[in-house]
Amino acid sequence: MGKTLGDFTLEIKAGEFTDSEIMVMLGENGDVPTLNVSYKPQTISPKFKGSVRALLHEKIRDAYTHPQFITDVMKPMQIESIIDQDVQNLSGGELQRVALTLCLGKPADVYLIDEPSAYLDSEQRLMAARVIKRYILHAKKTAFVVEHDFIMATYLADRVIVFDGIPSRSTAANTPQSLLAGMNRFLSLLEITFRRDPNNFRPRINKLNSIKDTEQKKSGNYFFLDD
């Protein structure tokens, strides 16, 4: 399937997705284009006049008072600590936590989440990833996530959709692949290799043209799930 918008063309290759699955969409900036869909945008504008509580009551009235949603989303996202603050006075990180809560609180078949790690510190990013993964699993829904934080992307992804082509001009959305195959394909486009840190097991970029970088490129292993 193909779509054209002005000078931008998008080709979408056939694929399928299942319930309780998170698809992470990877591509260079300008590659990834932004059913019943709940959408969390990359940037958040605090236009709402009123408290966080009033916003949640207006947008997700049933969800934000439900005991399971409170346990799975509200508490780990620490919404209670800011619930009576004015939305327009929230920091970027606080707005992000509210936006993720609003997105997951809306009844939908598909959730599209753009940059869930934006404005969050490292601890909050890990918590947000856990919340998204647990919610999608338990609710038996599907999520498509655009994420440029590599560690968060690898944690979230059940499978990967790689976008390639000419950024902002001509892009192809490839068939969903396994995490390992998708990451290898994406990193090969960038000509970057990753290794697993032996101490904390986090992905680390190999120095360009280092022995490790050269060896992995020759073998076609740009990314490892395990050492």
From TrEMBL:
Q: Which domain of life is it from?
A: Eukaryota
Where would I find the ABC transporter domain in this sequence? Answer: 68-117
- Annotated organism of origin: Scophthalmus maximus
* Taxonomic placement: Eukaryota, Metazoa, Chordata, Craniata, Vertebrata
Q: Please report the name of this protein according to its UniProt entry.
A: ABC transporter domain-containing protein
InterPro entries registered for this protein in UniProt: ABC_transporter-like_ATP-bd, P-loop_NTPase, RLI1
Molecular function via GO: ATP binding; ATP hydrolysis activity
